[in-house]
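User: Hi! I'm a student and our assignment asks us to look at how structure tokens line up with a sequence. Could you show me two examples?

Assistant: Happy to help. In each example below, the sequence comes first and the structure tokens follow. Example one:
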Amino acid sequence: MKTVNIMIVGVGGQGSLLASNLLGHLLLKEGYDVKVSEVHGMSQRGGSVVTYVRYGDKVYSPLVSEGEADYIISFEKLEAARHAPMLKLGGQIVVNTQQIDPMPVITGAATYPDGILEELKAKGIKVDAIDALSLAKKAGSVKAVNIVLMGRLSNYFPFNEEVWIKAIEETVAPKFAQMNKTAFLLGRSN
């Protein structure tokens, strides 16, 4: 099997590390060789956070090069645009429609660009946009955006729902398991 390259991109505090741990755990349980690499950037200050997850028969490096990502899971629209060059031809972006203003926008030095998702689609990029924030609130916590996005991503993988649910139970603290399972199912079905 060829190596599959996944990038999870977001802003510090959004739970991208839990999402990558969940995905890595599931893939290991399914018998793949998995490499996960975290690049924190300014995560403690609300800056970009990038995580690479690579899996296949044998994976030698955790890093994904430009033009090699099969999937990009983006927790925010501007992060999707920022990392789009990493996507391979025919790759898929799963993106939360939420807008989180970066520091230059907050300070008034820049404006948040309009039409980000439309621009990506106009370039021929496959974009699967979901209002993960609303679904996370429906599940019981705004912090469940990451698991909603994992639910949406699960539609692109051949693993059944039970495998994903088991991975959630094995990686999430028990007191948050039910809420995260609900978030996952909302993302998977919406």
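Example two works the same way, sequence first and then tokens:
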Amino acid sequence: MPNQDDLAVQYLDTSLSTFRSQKKLADRAMEQLDDAGLFWVPDPESNSIAIIAKHVAGNMISRWTDFLTTDGEKPNRNRDDEFVDGFTDKQQVLDLWEQGWNVLLATLSELTPDDLLRTVTIREEPHTVVQAIQRQISHYGYHVGQIVYAAKAYRSAQWNTLSIAKNASARFNASMKRS
């Protein structure tokens, strides 16, 4: 019979898998974009994919640096600046994006089952580690969805689907049964 440690290990593994899946989805969407697509803004009130990636990376670096010992909203974070485009090219965006993900994945990989019920703070609000992880899974999932949607809108008919193509569900389901 599984014990609490088994459940905790499963939770940490599943959380890592979920974050990696989110990253892969956004990466595959951004791979389909040229510089213009990464910086495209559908309307003046929207953010480009570059800005969304900058915000996500800034959030990750702040939240996951010294995760267990300092508030997740670091004093040096300038959240408002995350919504200002100061990039010169796509590579700058991708480098910052990778930096954020590296901090998150390294930190999460180091957590142990004993850490899950510890208290951390985000903007001085206490969270268990489980709550903080769930908060970030939800937050990053929201923004990954924005990235995919904007990339698809920009690419339009040239978009390469990241999941099951339209009108291909039956074929996909049949192939899964044969596996």
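Here is something you could point out in your write-up. The first strand starts at residue 119 and ends at 122.
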